[in-house]
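Example 4.3 (complexes with small molecules)
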Amino acid sequence: MDETIQIHERLRESFGSRGFLLLGVTGIDVAEDHTRFLHWLEAGNHGGMDFLVRNSEIRGDLNRLLPGTKSAVIFALPYAPAGTSEQDKAQVPAQVEAPSGPRIAKYARLRDYHKVMWQEGDAAFTAAMSDRSTEHRVCVDSAPVLERALAAQSGSGFIGKNTCFIAGKQGSFLLLGIVLTTLEIAPTKMPAEIKSRTNANSCGGCRRCQTHCPTGALDQAWNLDSRRCLSYWTIENRGTIPEEFWPWLGKYWYGCDICQDVCPYNRTGVKLERSDLQRPVEKLALEQVATMDQELYEQTFGGTPMTRAKRNGLRRNAMIAMFVTANPGLDSVLKKALQDEDPVIQETARQILRRIHIRIMNIAK
Ligand code: B12
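Answer. The structure with cobalamin bound is encoded below.
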């Protein structure tokens, strides 16, 4: 067997045996995507995510993360259609309406994927390259790497209008991981079937993600305006949430999958093979989330991706979701929240009370 094919095969087997998909191998020139990224920042699309601005230059030069980097190996952890619940299964092909009550995004129904992907991605790469000397570094999410751009360059998929990396029929419910290596590995070739879809606009005339995004975050195709994205407001934002976005927290109170749920490429999609990574979705009622102390927070959400929003972020989201779904437990939650030590929790309670007041005044008119 030709040596290049052999290396690709070894990588494929090594990542595959750990429940990952090997998406491919690519060189490290990301200049075009980096320019696009800088324009995206310039236009303010990052909202308050200052960390993206702080390390914006590093994203253009992978050598700054690992000196001497020659290649990037891209792998993915499929996480859906997860089958974590019957409701989700019934949703494929996906629909927009929540089956009942506010939900959390699908990726958040896993244990924290970062650690698993770092450790096992590292093990997969090391095992496949055991006969070679190389330095390498695994990056998952938090390192300043343009992960989607590298995934697309590896040839196994494309960037959709929803800005997600879509691995063709395997869909976009994939978490991405990158192994940077000082070894020069030949880039993977695109299978002809994928190539024909990638060269042209692979979304064709479809605009489902754009028209279904309830908040207009994708009004411009291939450009996500975080300032209008529910995922941004419920996960990354540390302040209060503008009231215009509240109604949608009745559907997703943490993250949002709508632009992927409606994507035709996700009608098929790969399933999570690593059932050990699934976690039971919390049994806590929203009322308990809204009032949880540090201990309950750690017990329930520790080791899950939901810690990204921090305890008070989850409490804020839960309060709003309770308000928009007219949850009968809201009164007692608000009473406590008004005395809370966290200013965002206090202000969210005041916002809700103002809304209730306005509603009552309107009824009285
Ligand atoms: C910041 C961030 C966010 C922000 C901003 C998202 C965004 N679209 O930019 C917010 C908080 C909103 C977010 C939300 C989500 N995120 Co996020 N996020 C990131 C993070 C940390 C950086 C992304 C970034 O740099 N954005 C800036 C834009 C400009 O860059 P980009 O999205 O990578 O786009 C590049 C390419 O798309 C390409 N490109 C852009 N436009 C065009 C147009 C054409 C025609 C072409 C060909 C290419 C192209 O160039 C861009 C620059 O390189 C990455 C991890 C990482 N290190 O990359 C995860 C990441 C993108 N997120 C991920 C996930 C899972 C999500 C959510 C699904 C979570 C959820 N359920 O709530 C949503 C999806 C929302 C969406 N439609 O993007 C996954 C995406 C996996 C995938 N299959 O694409 C990533 C890769 C994390 C991971 N390791 O798996 N996220």
